[in-house]
Amino acid sequence: MSNIEKRVAFVEPRGAPSNVFAKFMTIPLLGPVVLATIAKEAGYDAYVLNENILKRDISNDELKSIDILCMSCITATVNRGKEIAKRYKSVRGNLESRTIIGGIHASMMPEDVKNDFDQVFVGEAETKILDLLEGKLKDKIVYGEKLENLDDVPISDFSLIKGLEKLKIRPLMASRGCPHDCNFCSVAEMFGRKYRFQSPERVLEELMAYDKGNVFFADDNFTANPKHTDELLDLMLKSGYKGAWSAQVRAQIAKKPELVAKMKKAGCDIVFIGFESVNPKSLIEMNKGQTVEDIENAIKVFKKNGISVHGMYIIGTDSDTKSEFKTISKFNRKNKVDYVQYNLLTPLPGTRLYREFDAQGRIFDKNWSHYDSTHVVYQPKNMTVNDLQYGMLRCYTDFYSYRNALRSAIGITYETGMTSLKKMFVKAHMPSFHPILMKFAGKHIVRSWLKKNRDYLRNLGAYSKPNYGRM
Length: 471
Hints:
By secondary structure, this protein is an alpha/beta fold. Helix content is 40%, strand content 15%. The longest helix has 21 residues, at 402-422.
């Protein structure tokens, strides 16, 4: 069978149905799209099946038509990936079939998946994917190599995603790697401790190729090299690029307010900042390299420039106690954070945290579907399992509530009036009403999480039995 006759599907399984924040937006993994693009250019009938975008299960008829099934999973989706691979083998029957798994979970824990797939790919796959598809690489576990020149990565062909019309946000990764050593993160393990960058010209070329939808820079830190970022922003402004975009940044970049102002001018409308904690001891424990004052300054600087702030927390370090939940909620109200995402500390495979907790015997749940940062999977130090689980949920219900939405509406209405007056004399950014709508929507999403996880929450009683009353 020639390449052009072989159907190769790059599959991203659906995320855990109980993930709270996943309901807000769908951003596909970039790896399957890039690899499908490479395979397509080499003559394969390649495409991407993403269950999060399709909003349904991959059908048996779809699986039966696939010659090579390439699965990409994070830890929270690997159980679903194994289910799909097993069903694929069943529906193919006597037809030739191959299953390959890659992605962060397989790269961090190849032994966990090697019995469920014909081959396991560890690491970055761009330079070896064609040899793998052609059958030139026979090993059960195949190891990739880091791509030194990111400009060699082809522009992602999102048209290869089935159900593309449902995709509102397109990811773009302009850099890889991270020199920081946060104990909960596996980015450095996967991509290395050294930053590698696409050239600003190459990033702009990719941006200009996306004519629909917003762009999300999936870099772990979009402003890792301020000089490089500044050059890219200049090119975007010069080119007349008009698309809206968002990015992940560290709080420290707010110490360069002129760069933040240029980000807004170039189309940035929201930044995702890893607050992680407002407990100084927890920040030190996580080796985050930032202070609470850095976080407060970042919120102030970005909001002053009309860029919404999405704060991401990690709750449950050994320095955290039950009082942390109220502290976080008060911090958000005081600083008028636009959006929040609460993540329970999760010992993901491949991280220093996983190795430490596993050695200490503190991990009691290795159901990978629960590793979505909304389920407690380890024994906390200064609170019970239920304290942590319900504390996180209370933080969500406090922020995404009608009362908080009304409070924000009153505040933004006042700010809008004051800004309108200011614009008569100086340049000022009008506040957005979108965060208010998200607070209303978030309330229903949290209720849905509670409903779907009723049995899970009931089973937590095996570990601790505090009386919480009604949520």
